[in-house]
Each structure stands twice: as C-alpha cells, then as structure tokens.
C-alpha cells in the first residue's frame, strides 16, 4: 500500500470546510510546546539569563501557579468573529482566555494557567501585573448595548467554575476599568455587577443605617478597595462605572460616601 502525505487542512477540506481555527490551533500547539520545553528545563535559567547550575536541587513538591483574579471586559467590537480574528493575528498581541458571544457560546482560547494579554498597563492594590495573575474574559459587546441573557448565563457558569477550580477570592472579580482608570471603560455601564456580587463574584454595598465618620476620606477608601489613586478623578470615574453606573459625574455625593464607606469595610 502506498502512503501519500496530505496536509491536514486539505484532508479537512475534502471532508468539510477547512476551519479557519485549524491554522491558529496549530500555532497554539507550537507555542505551547515551546513553553512545555522551557518548563522541563533544569537547572532553571531566569529571565535575566542567570542560573544556579552548580547548586540546583530539584524539589519533589510543586504544582502549576494558579490565577487569583478574574478580569471582565467588553470587546468594543461588532461581532464575536471579529474578536476571534483580533485574538488570532500575531501583530495585535492581544488575547483573552475566554470570549463569550451574544448567543452564549463560550470560546476558550488559552489554558487558564498561561498568561493572556488582556489587562495592559494596570494596577489593583499592589498588584501591578494583572496579566500574570488573572483570567481574562471578553464579552462580545460594542461598548454601548446591554449584555444578552445568554451571555450572562454563560458568564455565571464560567465564573463558578473558575472560582471553584482556583479558589479565587470573592473580592477578586473585577472589571478592566477598575484596574486601568482613565484608560479603560469596560465593561460598560449596563454590566450587572450587583447580580454578580449577589452570586459571590465581587462585593456590593449595603448603606442601610450606615453612619459615615466625619474624618472619612473617600479617596483613601478607593485605595483600600483596590483602585490606583494617582489620578483621583479617574479612580472616581471607574468606581462609579462599577458601583453607581447611573452617575457619570466625578463629584462624590453624600450617598456615595456611604457606599464607599460600606465597601471599604468589605475590602479592608
Ligand atoms: Zn478590556
């Protein structure tokens, strides 16, 4: 019997339409293989090119690092197809672990244990490399419309799975605008953060009977919650987008002082 070499894509073409993802899946495999090779290397060479070859002793007790945050985005694009394309073109250098389409379809694009490029320049508390410590979820949305029911159902299932799998603290479900004030405004004002908080993903406030002390500092409260307060007005805008979406001003009202005081207690 004679064997002929037939490229995989051609075989698929003969069977059905050649999926556009087959090419990028092949590239994914290639890159994952390269990282697997690095993980198997020892003595370990660090990113500065140094190693401790002579004194290397491999421990027997270890596991993979795990994500400790979830960062939620809207894509600001017009379709899932457009986003999948953006995340599979090398020159864009942007990606997320998951993309949730309007019909609720969830595209898993990267192993949760690997680093996606979704957060950019960002900070939350003292954490200045959110890409290294988070799972990024992009929801297909043009930046204005509300999110579909199917998207929210899929998102909640996914959040549950991530929280359980990696033991992610309730406080650590945040939005891109939270970690990049003044630079990002996603997910948009319509995103139901309260609904998420009610199910254990992020915190919400309760201002019932709250008495705010006279010396309460709302900007310090923002810092305690996690916001970077280098530009206080940007932090206030991001806070309102998340917790008081009906108010787009950057003036902190008496009610918002109560909200911040209530939240500060949960985060500190
Ligand atoms: Zn974003």
UniProtKB/TrEMBL annotation:
InterPro entries: Amidase/PGRP_sf, Amidase_domain, NAMLAA_amidase_2. One of its GO terms (molecular function) is N-acetylmuramoyl-L-alanine amidase activity. It is an enzyme of class 3 (hydrolase). Residues 55-188 form the N-acetylmuramoyl-L-alanine amidase domain. Keywords: Cell wall biogenesis/degradation, Hydrolase. Its EC number is 3.5.1.28. Pfam families: Amidase_2. SMART domains: Ami_2. It catalyses: Hydrolyzes the link between N-acetylmuramoyl residues and L-amino acid residues in certain cell-wall glycopeptides. PANTHER family: N-ACETYLMURAMOYL-L-ALANINE AMIDASE AMID. This is N-acetylmuramoyl-L-alanine amidase.
């Amino acid at each position: 019997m004679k064997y002929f070499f037939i490229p995989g894509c051609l075989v698929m073409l003969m069977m059905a339409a050649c999926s556009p993802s087959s090419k990028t899946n092949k590239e994914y495999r290639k890159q994952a293989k390269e990282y697997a090779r690095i993980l198997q290397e020892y003595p370990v060479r660090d990113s500065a090119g140094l190693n401790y070859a002579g004194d290397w002793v491999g421990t027997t007790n270890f596991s993979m690092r795990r994500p400790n945050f979830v960062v939620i985005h809207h894509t600001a694009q017009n379709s899932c197809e457009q986003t999948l394309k953006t995340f599979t073109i090398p020159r864009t250098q942007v990606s997320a672990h998951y993309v949730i389409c309007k019909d609720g379809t969830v595209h898993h694009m990267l192993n949760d244990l690997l680093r996606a490029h979704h957060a950019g320049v960002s900070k939350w508390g003292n954490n200045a490399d959110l890409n290294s410590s988070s799972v990024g979820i992009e929801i297909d949305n043009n930046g204005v419309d509300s999110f579909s029911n199917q998207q929210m159902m899929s998102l909640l299932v996914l959040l549950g799975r991530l929280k359980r799998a990696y033991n992610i603290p309730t406080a650590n479900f945040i939005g891109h605008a939270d970690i990049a004030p003044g630079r990002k405004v996603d997910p948009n004002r319509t995103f139901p953060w309260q609904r998420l908080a009610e199910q254990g993903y992020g915190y919400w406030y309760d201002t019932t009977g709250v008495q705010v002390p006279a010396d309460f500092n709302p900007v310090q409260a923002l810092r305690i919650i996690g916001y970077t307060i280098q530009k206080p007005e940007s932090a206030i805008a991001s806070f309102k987008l998340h917790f008081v979406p009906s108010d787009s001003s950057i003036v902190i009202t008496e009610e918002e002082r109560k909200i911040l005081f209530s939240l500060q207690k949960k985060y500190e």
